[in-house]
Amino acid sequence: MRIAADRERCASAGMCALTAPGVFDQDDEDGRVLVLNAEPEAGDAEEAADAVGLCPSGALTVTEP
Amino acid sequence: MIPLETDSEDLPEGMPYLRETRHDPPAALLALQDRPLRRMKYYPDGAEGWLVTGYAESRRILSDPRFVTGERFVRSPTELPHFFVSSSEHVPPGFFFFTDPPDHTRLRRKITGALTLKRMKDLGPRITDIVDDSIAALRDAGSGADLMREFGLPVPSLVICEMLGVPYADRDRFQRTSNDIFDQVLPVERRSEAAAELFAYVRELVPAKRTDPGADMLSALAADDDLTDDEAAGIGMILLLGGHETTANMFGLGTLALLEHPDQLARLRAEPELMEGAVEELLRYLTVAHAGMMRIVKEDAEIDGRLLRAGEYITVAPHAANRDPARFDRPNEFDVGRDAQGHIAFGHGVHQCVGQQLARVEMRIGFARLLAAFPGLRLAVPPEEIPLRTGMFIYGVDSLPVAW
Ligand code: HEM
Ligand code: HEM
Ligand code: SF4
């Protein structure tokens, strides 16, 4: 699976880091999303898919299943 | 061209807000769940707009930039008077809750760096100290004491004061004014006075924060060249208000819900690892921000084949959406073991609660320590005698006498 994050849309809500801590983090500057692992596998991929659905701002997308 | 639909002759008049039970949304509201997006009439002028009770529909609307908040609201979705009767004069500068992107984005990003999940986890030990001090105060007050007064209100107030750098000793000035702002039953004049008082209070603190800064959020806002002092004060005010009232009500109402569901309480005591999920379930089941999230249609938009016209009002009922049977099994059951993630108790879209990771940490620690400290926690009065905050923006209990 491949994940992309649009930092311009990100609302820094932290749902991604909460849901998939192995895949996402937030930066220290203004809390916007940082992708730690753009090609998550197995459990991380499941959590990442949940995070994509939960993100309130539509900043996250799955670019390859 | 999609015709402007009318549902039927008898449109609901406003969003029902009077509750029959302590924990459930009004029956009249849940009765409207059969149509997740429907037209309704608004008080006080009877103009028509939209009511959203469905989960999927709520998420779509709250995350769609065609539905905005920055316009001034003059209509209330309940028969209670609306705060912004006619003018924008009550909205303080920097108060980004009522702004839209790009201004909203600029202002919101001034504080999001200080509220990340990581930072909130680092605050854990300090929050634990504050929680334990409040538990000690509750114990000292003796069996029969008010949990809201000794624990529910002090914990989030102390935490947000420390983060912002606002003296807790001044709490009389902000707890009463916040309460008045959120009290929909008070005359609108009193509520706008209270908003002005609260703004003036935070505004007074700003110059000193610049000349003599501390390691707190208000000092960082005051030092930011990109913000006027008024904007810094407006952002400080939104955090002070949002930071204590909501979490406090989750503590009061959440404790009541646990005590009234002894099987769930016993399960949570026996399996403390359920706490994280239990907090999400409490958020879903209770949805204390029950006044309805309002948006205005900026440009004509089609949702599920229906035309929402520019200028029309939309009220999303998150407490109904969080009980949508299409999304949650047995939605009206409180179940600490369920997966409640995805609930919209913190809203959705760009305004989704900026303090949610703080609130989560406060609630996880707060409920865990409270239950551990009082193995025999129980209500000190019959549940029917607990005063409920039906007419408040944020639902909850006024007081919660407990024994142990
Ligand atoms: C945790 C943060 C907050 C929550 C959950 C919350 C919740 C709500 C909700 C659900 C509404 C109803 C409609 C809408 O979305 O516009 C509302 C309106 C309003 N809120 Fe808040 N709010 C929060 C923060 C604040 C703050 C910080 C203030 C500070 C003054 C505030 C003042 C108001 C006012 C003045 C209204 C309009 C009320 C009326 O016209 O009667 N809110 N709020
Ligand atoms: C359990 C506790 C809380 C609940 C249920 C809650 C709920 C909400 C909801 C529903 C909204 C969105 C309102 C809308 O879209 O119209 C919101 C926004 C907001 N909340 Fe919270 N909140 C809580 C705790 C906090 C805390 C602890 C803080 C402060 C640190 C806070 C600060 C805010 C602010 C500033 C906003 C406005 C965000 C924006 O407009 O971008 N809230 N909250
Ligand atoms: S969940 Fe979405 S909005 Fe929130 S921090 Fe992650 S990417 Fe940003």
TrEMBL record, chain A:
Classification via InterPro entries: 3Fe4S_ferredoxin, Divergent_4Fe-4S_mono-cluster, Fe-S_cluster_ET
Highest rank taxon of the organism: Bacteria
Pfam families hit by this protein: Fer4_19
Residue intervals of the Divergent 4Fe-4S mono-cluster domain: 1-64
Cofactor(s), by name: [3Fe-4S] cluster
Keywords: 3Fe-4S, Electron transport, Iron, Iron-sulfur, Metal-binding, Transport
Name this polypeptide is given: Ferredoxin
TM region(s), chain numbering: none
GO molecular function, one term: iron ion binding
Function as written in the Swiss-Prot or TrEMBL entry: Ferredoxins are iron-sulfur proteins that transfer electrons in a wide variety of metabolic reactions.
